[in-house]
């Protein structure tokens, strides 16, 4: 019998599925629940156990990990008679790895404590590739003792794992991350159109730019998307739109100006309005193309 904690995983999407599978590879027993039957089958095929409900998934779990799109989904799975808080055992550790508002995380920790359940907010950065390769950056909010208990498990999912402060701090850092990523993608997209319209060899240009001060993880990860116009979602525009709403709202609350971030948030919103919300966030390139007179098909 393994001495490792028993894991319940709720939310097996683009990120959640490979992350849960990495825990299985690391020797953890993982029971999962999600709304899509094919994702449950994928978990079972990887060696996990599919549950028929949240209540069934969490009932015997030592650690519960959630990875869902936004605050409303976190609240839906956490609260209510069929939710996590009513069905998890006292003493369990709930690690929410969704990207949500800091206040939602603070409220969840407070309500869970009343049930004897410990909570960490632990959103991630690195996208689908980082989830598959188990090299995510994980920014954590919560108590030191809970972080110490969770760290061996988190090390099966990521490489940079940092306790950023009390409950909600992980979400605040993730919001800052999403601000930086969106602005970076937008700058790269503008450079791509500028280079193409100037008649430069685009792959060569991006290669040399990547080796200098303009280089970034965003440029390295997204160069193929830009060159090939491959916008298969690793992280959808819809989700980045949600995250830009989180950071702009949080910044307003603390009195921080986001002059560039606010513009990029509007450009992300514009893409959604034009039907590109299901595409990868590298599709910010399409917005620059439209503004630059490209005749886009589809």
Automatic annotation (TrEMBL):
InterPro entries: 6-PGluconate_DH-like_C_sf (IPR008927), 6PGD_dom2 (IPR013328), 6PGDH_NADP-bd (IPR006115), HIBADH-like_NADP-bd (IPR029154), HIBADH-related (IPR015815), NAD(P)-bd_dom_sf (IPR036291), Tartro_sem_red (IPR006398)
3-hydroxyisobutyrate dehydrogenase-like NAD-binding domain ranges (all copies): 168-286
Entry keyword Oxidoreductase: yes
Database matches in SUPFAM superfamilies: 6-phosphogluconate dehydrogenase C-terminal domain-like, NAD(P)-binding Rossmann-fold domains
Domain of life: Bacteria
Pfam families: NAD_binding_11, NAD_binding_2
Domain 6-phosphogluconate dehydrogenase NADP-binding as annotated: residue spans: 6-165
Alphabetical UniProt keywords: NAD, Oxidoreductase
The UniProt record lists the keyword Oxidoreductase: yes
PANTHER family: 3-HYDROXYISOBUTYRATE DEHYDROGENASE-LIKE 1, MITOCHONDRIAL-RELATED (PTHR43060)
Family membership noted in the UniProt record: Belongs to the HIBADH-related family.
Protein name: 2-hydroxy-3-oxopropionate reductase
Species annotation: Streptomyces lunalinharesii
Classification of source organism: Bacteria, Bacillati, Actinomycetota, Actinomycetes, Kitasatosporales
């Amino acid at each position: 019998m393994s001495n490792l904690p028993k894991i319940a995983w709720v939310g097996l999407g683009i990120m959640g599925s490979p992350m849960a599978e990495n825990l299985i590879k690391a020797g953890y027993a993982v029971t999962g629940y999600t709304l899509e039957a094919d994702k449950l089958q994928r978990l079972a095929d990887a060696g996990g156990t599919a549950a028929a409900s949240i209540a069934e998934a969490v009932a015997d779990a030592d650690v519960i990990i959630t990875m869902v799109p936004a605050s409303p989904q976190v609240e839906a799975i956490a609260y209510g008679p069929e939710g996590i808080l009513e069905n998890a055992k006292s003493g369990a550790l709930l690690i929410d790895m969704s990207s949500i508002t800091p206040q939602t995380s603070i409220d969840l920790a407070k309500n869970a404590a009343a049930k004897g359940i410990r909570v960490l907010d632990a959103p991630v950065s690195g996208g689908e590739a980082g989830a598959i390769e188990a090299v995510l950056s994980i920014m954590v909010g919560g108590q030191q003792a809970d972080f110490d208990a969770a760290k061996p498990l988190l090390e099966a999912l990521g490489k940079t794992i940092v306790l950023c402060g009390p409950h909600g701090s992980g979400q605040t850092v993730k919001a800052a991350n999403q601000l930086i990523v969106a602005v970076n993608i937008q700058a790269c997209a503008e450079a791509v159109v500028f280079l193409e319209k100037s008649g430069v060899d685009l792959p060569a240009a991006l290669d040399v730019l990547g080796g200098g001060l303009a280089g970034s993880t965003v440029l390295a990860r997204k160069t193929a998307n830009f060159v090939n116009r491959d916008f298969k979602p690793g992280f959808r525009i819809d989700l980045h739109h949600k995250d830009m709403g989180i950071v702009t709202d949080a910044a307003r609350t603390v009195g921080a100006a986001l002059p560039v971030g606010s513009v990029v948030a509007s450009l992300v919103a514009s893409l959604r309005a034009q039907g590109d919300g299901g595409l990868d966030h590298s599709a910010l390139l399409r917005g620059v193309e439209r503004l630059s007179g490209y005749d886009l098909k589809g």
